[in-house]
């Protein structure tokens, strides 16, 4: 894999950073989404034949990271173009591609993603949302929780399970569920964390879907699911790295300008060294994120899965440490609204627990990479 960014990637970073700087921390989500779409950033990973930029997750992660570094991350980028757009582009029918990809690319439509359940988390083997055939249709029943942006999405890509006709075992399948589908209801979850995108609990009560709502092959199972989950982990890493960079930049500026006894506080190693460590951790996390994106875009799903999990873990840890150190650097000012860091204390921890917890990533690495026996 390349160890340095191409000129095209550098140019993309600069252009997106300029867009982020124009909008800043007090950004309007709808306005930024619309402008990013017009500039081609939202669909940069989608096929050119369907209105996208023809790039990959590597390019899309650059967009999200740079917007995050400017203080205006777009969480729905993790979901709509990265997960849903990728899955439809890889496995959707021609009709599904024609209907959804151009609209996802130009930002006129968005799609949410529903996998997490109250009793299963994101463990696809424990999902209880089930789909069974009723004539030519599907009937989908179950519950989902902590699903982002359902209120603003035109549809939700729901992960359910169907019975394998050969083995009788349940396997994951993906269905496009329109927002206004009968039997599909949502309840907003009252979150302490304040974000532009709201969280919802979903109930699917015998939601009737036509045959064409199924995305991909009924028997493909985990292959199709992880085609969306690996980009989700990579994009979560980008989200975390951008957030960490934003916090670190605030701390660096403050440490340069804040003077005590005629000396900038950044001259003291007790201030400078932790900030330097935070920078190193963020840079290392970015390298793993870039590796994961490269492997995914090259079509190596197995290696990309391992790297995506590692990138998400590293970025989540680096983000939390960067935000924590930024707040400490500013002292009381780190808790004021003026600097925009206090809200990140909570937001940074999202990258540790979603879309998969760091403990489950450690389980994955210990089992799959190191070959250690399972504890469960």
Verbal overview:
It contains eleven helices and ten strands. A four-stranded mixed sheet has the order 1-4-5-8, with helices on one face. Strands 2-3-7-6 form a four-stranded antiparallel sheet, with no helix packed on it. It has 376 residues and is an alpha+beta fold. The chain is globular and about 80 Å long. The mean pLDDT is 93. β2 (130-134) and β3 (137-148) form a beta hairpin.
Describe the structure concisely.
The protein is 49% helix and 16% strand. The chain contains eleven helices and ten strands.
Distance between the termini: 35 Å
Continuous helix count:
11
Which structural class fits the helix and strand makeup? alpha+beta
Determine the fraction of residues in helical runs and give it as a percent range: 40-55%
Name the shape in a single word: globular
Strand content: 15-25%
Indicate the mean pLDDT: 93
List segments where confidence is low: pLDDT < 50 over at least 5 consecutive residues: none
Largest sheet entry = 4 strands, mixed
The ordered string of helix (H) and strand (E) elements is: HHHHHEEEEEEEEHEEHHHHH
Taking all Cα atoms into account, the compactness measure Rg is 21 Å
Number of strands: 10
What features would you highlight for this structure?
376 residues; alpha+beta; four-stranded mixed sheet; four-stranded antiparallel sheet; 49% helix; 16% strand
């Amino acid at each position: 894999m390349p160890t340095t960014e191409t000129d095209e990637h550098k140019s993309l970073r600069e252009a997106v950073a300029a867009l982020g700087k124009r909008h800043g921390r007090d950004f309007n989500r709808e306005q930024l989404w619309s402008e990013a779409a017009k500039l081609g950033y939202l669909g940069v990973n989608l096929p050119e034949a369907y209105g996208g930029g023809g790039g990959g997750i590597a390019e899309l992660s650059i967009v999200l990271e740079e917007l995050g570094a400017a203080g205006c991350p777009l969480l729905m980028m993790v979901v709509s173009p990265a997960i849903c757009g990728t899955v439809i582009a890889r496995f959707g029918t021609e009709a599904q591609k024609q209907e959804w990809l151009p609209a996802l690319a130009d930002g006129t439509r968005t799609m949410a993603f529903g996998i997490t359940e109250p009793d299963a988390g994101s463990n696809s083997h424990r999902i209880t949302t089930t789909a069974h055939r009723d004539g030519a249709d599907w009937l989908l029943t179950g519950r989902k929780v902590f699903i982002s942006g359902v209120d603003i999405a035109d549809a939700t890509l729901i992960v359910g399970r169907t019975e394998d006709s050969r083995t009788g075992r349940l396997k994951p399948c993906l269905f496009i569920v329109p927002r206004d589908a009968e039997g599909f209801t949502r309840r907003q979850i009252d979150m302490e964390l304040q974000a532009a995108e709201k969280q919802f609990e979903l109930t699917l009560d015998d939601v009737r879907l036509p045959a064409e709502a199924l995305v991909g092959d009924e028997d493909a199972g985990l292959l199709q699911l992880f085609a969306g989950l690996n980009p989700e982990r990579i994009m979560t890493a980008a989200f975390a790295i951008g957030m960490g960079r934003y916090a670190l930049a605030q701390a660096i500026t403050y440490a340069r300008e804040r003077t005590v006894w005629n000396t900038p506080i950044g001259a003291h190693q007790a201030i400078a060294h932790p900030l330097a460590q935070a920078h190193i951790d963020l840079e290392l996390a970015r390298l793993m994120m870039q590796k994961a994106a490269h492997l995914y875009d090259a079509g190596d799903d197995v290696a990309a899965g391992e790297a995506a999990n590692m990138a998400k873990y590293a970025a989540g840890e680096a983000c939390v440490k960067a935000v924590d150190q930024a707040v400490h650097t500013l002292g009381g000012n780190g808790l004021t609204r003026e600097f925009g860091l206090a809200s990140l204390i909570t937001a940074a921890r999202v990258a540790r627990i979603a879309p998969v917890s760091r403990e489950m990533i450690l389980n994955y690495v210990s089992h799959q990479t190191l070959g250690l026996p399972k504890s469960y």
